[in-house]
Amino acid sequence: MLRRALSLSPLLVLVLLLAGCASGSPDAGTVPPGPGPDEVYLDPGDQEGFVPEPELAGWARNTLAGLTLRQKIGQMIMPIVLGDFAPKGSVAHDRIARLVEETEVGGIIVSVGSPTDVAVKLNDLQSHARIPLLVGSDLETGPGFRLSGAVHSPTNIVLGGATQFPNLMALGAARDAGLAYEMGRITALEARAVGIHLPFAPVLDVNNNPDNPIINVRSFGEEPELVARMGTAFVRGVQEHGAIATGKHFPGHGDTGVDSHLALPLIEASRARMDSVELVPFRAAVDAGMGAVMTAHISVPALNGGNGDPATLSPAVMEDLLRGQMGFDGILVTDAMDMGAIERGWGREEAAVRAVEAGADILLMPPSPQAAIEGILGAVADGRITEERIDRSVLRLLEAKERLGLHRERTVPLDRVPEVVGIPSHLEVSQRVARSALTLLRNRGDLLPLLGTPGARVISVTYRREADVLAGRYFNATLRERYRRLQTVDVTRDSDPAVYDRVLSQARRSALVVVSLYVTALSYSGTVAIPEETSAFIEALADARIPHVVISFGNPYLIREFPGVRSYLLAYSGSSASQRAAGAALFGDIPITGRLPTRIPPLFEIGDGFQQPAVVRERRR
Predict the structure, then answer these.
(1) Residues designated catalytic
(2) Same domain, yes or no, for 265 and 397?
(3) How far is it, in rounded angstroms, from Cα 299 to Cα 486?
(4) Are 395 and 455 part of one and the same domain?
């Protein structure tokens, strides 16, 4: 699959796909079913710097032949490194440089940093590696997911970075495979420009559990066919532009109520249900030539004969199902091996051994790379794992490096970074996604679009995580352009309840209250819900008949906590593009065309969403 996916020539691709739909509800408009063609255009110039090889020249096999067993195992290890600036001689630089040199790991996963800092660091680490490093990174919402968003705290200046897209559920709401392809294309181009080869995206989980604390808006939605359609378009966009797409989290993490960073989730669905729901997007992406798959730290007894082991450590799931029945022959990456679902249950060495026995090619973020290597060496010595089994994985990784051209040039030209990363044409695509996704589920009394009377007394209440300093920054700026007397209030999970009482008192003397909720699936936030005080405040606005609108810049399911809300708009993401789009939509500057890609029981069904045209206003003379 990887060979086929990375040897495609630039073509003009026309994708004709059916738009999904579902029945409506009393609170939301629906769009009738029908075909929705999406046009995808490939610019032949986009593949500059990537020359696919139809046949391998033998570098991978020759390199494998010269490696010791310990060196081979090292090629399967991918530790994490920050993308921060780390000058030579610093503790941070020397630690990872020694790991690359002494442990001879085959790759690294790079975390947050600016595009130039990441490119400089990766070039330096490549110079310390005897064999070129395969570099991965979590780029679920595009390169900006890891390479953007830095704020200089003394001045509150945003330092800029790579292109950040809204969460994938925004694409599900837009139902435009062309935009999904474009997101994949831009992700690949910007990733390769800084030295990343393996974007860990797209998420192919079907989010069919509204209480899922870890997937949520990271998924395209609840419809398996929609997730498959968007996912395969994203995959093609990535792989036709020089990178390796990684579908995650196999065999499907969407129906869990437990965060696998903390404990092992159990999915008790039958094999028939898994075949008709969770496995649908993965089958489609594998058939489309997806080059890599990331495992899920979840237990699905129906797939491994009743065994309760996590899929990551299950040969029945990874070898028999994924490679055997589904025909996947690309790179198999574990999810992070330092997550609680794995480390607490099996220990560092044994978990590494079990993952290799299950079929993994890359052990991602083992708590101790050295312990993982020693554990696998011991398993080979004991006869649990054969050296031929190790060879299969290492050859697969070396061949990927050869197809990527890393054996010829492993570093990136730094002067190319600002020519490719975060450029205006890429940001414009992100804005198109954000605007196309907006979904209006409630608009009682036709409150929207707002008139934007300059002298009106308006309060904007922003609920955010303490660390999310950009929440509301761009959205409130759009409100302030219309409302000269805008008052802004920030609240967090730890805000005193008295704050809400004060704001409610002020709201009774105001023309409008706008509530923005920045809640998304982030493991370190601990929840995808809002405090009782926040939902009670919104319900109090409704009870008092105070004009108000709530915008969810993340979790769409929050309305279940305040069902009496007057107007409810979904943006699915707190990105700058989504904030600006939501602000424009409130005043009718842009149309609202998104449709809900998931159920919100018992209030809304898939496909719900009022369709509102833009307002045509006469220019003032």
Answers:
(1) 261, 335
(2) yes
(3) 50
(4) no
Name the H helices within 50-140.
Answer: 59-65, 69-74, 91-98, 115-128
Beta bridge partners of 552: 517, 570
Query: Which residue, 172, 252, 266, is CA-closest to 204?
Result: 252
Give the CA count within 13 Å in the CB-facing half-sphere of 560: 14
| Domain match, 377 and 481 both | no
Longest dimension (CA), the chain: 86
| Residues sharing a CB contact under 8 Å with residue 184, sequence separation 6 or more, in sequence order | 201, 202, 233, 234, 235, 236, 237, 238, 239, 241, 245
d(CA 466, CA 452): 30
Reading the block at residue 480, the tokens are: 């302030």
Q: Which residues pair with 199 in a beta bridge?
A: 137
Q: Count the domains in the chain.
A: 2
User: 34-35 and 18-19: which strand pairing?
Assistant: antiparallel
- Is the pLDDT assigned to residue 269 strictly greater than 80? yes
462 and 394 in a common domain: no
**Residue among 276, 142, 164, 171 nearest 598 (CA):** 171
Q: Are residues 400 and 442 in the same domain?
A: no
How far is the C-alpha of 199 from the C-alpha of 187, rounded, in Å?
8
Q: What is the mean pLDDT of the chain?
A: 89
Give exposure, 324-355, as e/b (b: 16+ Cβ within 10 Å).
eebebebbbbbbbbbbebbbebbebbebbbbb
Name the more confident of 105 and 348: 105
Count of CA atoms in the C-beta half-sphere (13 A) of 399 = 22
CB 597 within 8 A of CB 175: yes
Closest CA to 400 of 189, 140, 198, 124: 198
How does pLDDT run across 165-216, given as a tens digit for each residue?
A: 999 999 999 999 999 999 999 999 999 999 999 999 999 999 998 888 789 9
DSSP string, 459-479: EEEEE--TT-TTTTHHHHHHH
What CATH number does the domain containing 482 carry? 3.40.50.1700
Nearest to 336 by CA among 145, 99, 136, 184: 136
Determine how many CB atoms are found less than 10 A away from the CB of residue 454. Answer: 10
- Say if CB 147 and CB 421 are below 8 A apart: yes
What is the identity of the amino acid at 221?
Answer: G
Range(s) of the domain holding residue 181: 43-71+177-404
What is the three-class DSSP state of 610?
Answer: strand
Provide the whole-model pTM. 0.90
Where residue 348 sits, what CATH number does that domain have? 3.20.20.300
pLDDT digits (tens, 9 = 90+) for 459-506: 999 999 988 989 999 999 999 999 999 999 999 999 999 999 999 999
Residue 199 lies in a domain: yes
Do 388 and 491 share a domain, yes or no? no
In this predicted structure, what is the pLDDT of residue 476? 98
Choice among 210-224, 359-373, 378-392 with the minimum mean pLDDT = 210-224
pLDDT of residue 527: 66
